[in-house]
Structures are given as structure tokens and as C-alpha cells.
């Protein structure tokens, strides 16, 4: 439950809850601290995404009114899926009774109570949200972030040195400096890949425009997503019997998006991996339904862009992550099955660029061969969009936040022994019969 609260929120919607929270006084240690442990401290602790820590009464007390405003207005915890469509295992919500407890505590003056009433401290692996990594790959040299200017995406190749295929159970990217790191994508580059062939291991590399970065001259065939980092995006922990494959001889490639903030800074990002103890039965593969061919007119309040991906082999859907930039308004995933039936998989009616949330299906959804994943997004390029960098400009695809993207990421599982390329081109033997 990460708080990004403006002063206007402090007066927004809180009156509805005042005076109706019960007669028993609540205290921090007995009543509030357990709620924070279960819902907030994952982000609100030193070294994590939140701008303030909620680990102690002294740290929480100055934010009491802001906490009330955030939970009453449903700003926290952040969750944007329409509850009428899909069920998700990582859903973030605050139970009604917990919300009332927080409001009652604030209305009572945020009393501390007895420290002896406090629950045992929540256990966190220092520096990680996954279990202690079996191995960590880190940029060998810190990147020097300039104090100002536009910074192109940088890529850093990290050889794994793996002599055999390795299965990953959990993965997490840890930026070295969250103040300047907008996002990181860690890719798996298979041996022999031509993608970023001119990049030297461990050295930040900027591809030529239209070249090796997003395909182009370098080609990204066989390159897979390992894990990503962005504000709000959780680490990846796969279910028992599932894993992501890093082939022998593969490299990990960081795509790094830095944003200057007025001060010179450095960053040395790393990624931690937890390996599967036994070979999994299912392989996790991440795909995209992407449309880069759009031009959003100036002032348009709801410009529509669509994308699709047709699966050429059967799989099971386990993960969804819509991605747009500052003009993103809403996003919907729909499955069109070979029978002609359709199903809304995820509907995000109010997209927020500041929260790059992923949605994990409560249970795998079977996607038979021939299923089409259709994505529909709308963009608000009007002056009414407070986040809009410039409502007078036409907007096209681009890496920077003032440009736009339309990507429907989705994760599927297949048989661990199956070739993921069949999802793209089907079974060659059968198609030639």
C-alpha cells in the first residue's frame, strides 16, 4: 500500500466515514500495526518503493490523516481491475473492517497504546521481496546519470556463464537508485542471438535508432522476458511446478530507462534469481499483443488503439500487464476462442501510468490453439488529462514517457518440453501435412 498523496486528498471523501466507526478506541500497536504489516510494509519500509516507512509508530504518526484519506478514497492499496471481469490471486484490497479500524484510529487522535500489544515484527528478506536469491547478477560498473536532458534507453549484457539449462522459480530486479530509474526489463538472450551483437558485456550500450534495441537489425527472435521493474510492478514468483528457462550459454540483458532529476546520480542495478529445486512440468513464457502504428490526434480525449495476438498452440494464461504512458486512459484484454465465444480477461477502466500493475489469474485459463488475445486501449490527449505533457501535439510510439506505447503483455504456461516458438508458428510438421 504505497502512498503518493497530494494535500487535496486529505479532505476528499473522508466525511462519509466520520462518526460511524464504533465506540471502542483503537490503538496503533494493538489494532493498526497488524494492518500495516499485512497491507503496507511490503512497500513502506526502508529501501522499497514507498517514499515513507511505516515500520514504527514514530514513522506512521505524521501520516495518519493522509492514510485515512488514501484508504477512504480507495487510492490505497493500488488496484485498478474492474471486479466484474476476471479473478486474480494478487488482488490488493483493504477489508472493510480494516478500513474502519484505520479511520477510527485517526479520528481518535492516532493514539499509540501499549508497545507490549504490538505483534511480532513482520519478516522480510533484507533487500529482496523474493526468498534469498541463489544467485545475483549485477551491473559491473555504475551508470552515470546526468543531472538533466533526455537519456536514451541503455542496454547492459550480463553473461550468465550457465553451462546447463537453468530453471528459475522466482526473480526480482533491484534498482541501485530508484530516484533515477524509471524502469528495467531483464531479458533472456539465447546463445547465438544477433540481438545487440555489438554490445560489450557489462558496458552500457545505446543501439542506433531503428536498430538493435527493439528488434530492427539485431532481431529479437528467441529473446524472452525474465522479469521487470517499474513503479508498482511486483516481483515474479512462479507456482510450484512452473519455471522460466534460462538456456545454457544465455545472457541476461538489462534494458534501463533513466530519468534525470536535476542532480547527477549513479545506478548499479541487479537481478536476483531463485532456482527451481527440481525441473518444472510447465514453462512460463511472456508474450505481447502490441500495436506501434498509431497517431493520436491533438486534443483527442479517447483515441482508440487495438492490438491482437493469435496463439498457434495451446497454453494456459497466468499473467496480464497492460502498458501505456501518460496519456493512457483504459485498457481491456479479451479472449476470442476458436468456437467464436469471447471472454473479457481483464478490464482496467482507469489506467495509471504511475502504477505499472500486473494481474495474476486466480487459476490458469486454458487458451486452445487458435485463441486470439485482443487488446483495446484508449488514450486521453486532451487538456482534461492532468498528466498530459502537451495536448497540442500529435503523439506516436516512442520510448520516452511523453511519447506513447500500446503493449498488452501476457504470460502463459506450456509443457516444459515444448518449444515456445510453436506459440508463434504452430507445429511445422502438422502444418505441412
Question: Care to give the gist of this entry?
Answer:
With 433 residues, this protein is mainly beta.
Describe the 3D structure.
- The chain is mainly β and 433 residues long.
- It contains 6 helices and 19 strands.
- It has helices at 28-39, 57-60, 64-72, 96-107, 422-425, 428-432; strands at 135-138, 143-145, 154-159, 166-174, 181-189, 224-229, 236-237, 242-246, 251-258, 265-267, 270-275, 282-290, 303-310, 315-323, 328-336, 342-348, 359-367, 372-379, 407-415.
- Helix 1 packs across helix 4 (96-107) and helix 3 (64-72) packs antiparallel against helix 4 (96-107).
- The longest helix has 12 residues, at 28-39.
Q: How many helical stretches?
A: 6
Class derived from helix and strand content: mainly beta
Give the termini separation: 54 Å
Kindly provide the radius of gyration, computed on alpha-carbon positions and rounded to a whole number of angstroms: 23 Å
Provide the helix percentage.
Answer: 10-25%
Mean pLDDT: 89
Contiguous runs where pLDDT drops below 50 for at least 5 residues: 1-22, 211-217, 429-433
State which percent range the strand residues make up: 25-35%
Extended strand count: 19
Characterize the biggest β-sheet.
9 strands, mixed
Oligomer: single chain
Name the shape in a single word.
globular
The helix/strand order is HHHHEEEEEEEEEEEEEEEEEEEHH
Write the layout of secondary structure elements.
Layout: H1 28-39, H2 57-60, H3 64-72, H4 96-107, E1 135-138, E2 143-145, E3 154-159, E4 166-174, E5 181-189, E6 224-229, E7 236-237, E8 242-246, E9 251-258, E10 265-267, E11 270-275, E12 282-290, E13 303-310, E14 315-323, E15 328-336, E16 342-348, E17 359-367, E18 372-379, E19 407-415, H5 422-425, H6 428-432
Parallel strand pairs: 8-12
Antiparallel strand pairs: 1-11, 2-10, 3-9, 4-7, 4-8, 4-11, 5-6, 5-9, 12-19, 13-18, 14-17, 14-19, 15-16, 15-18
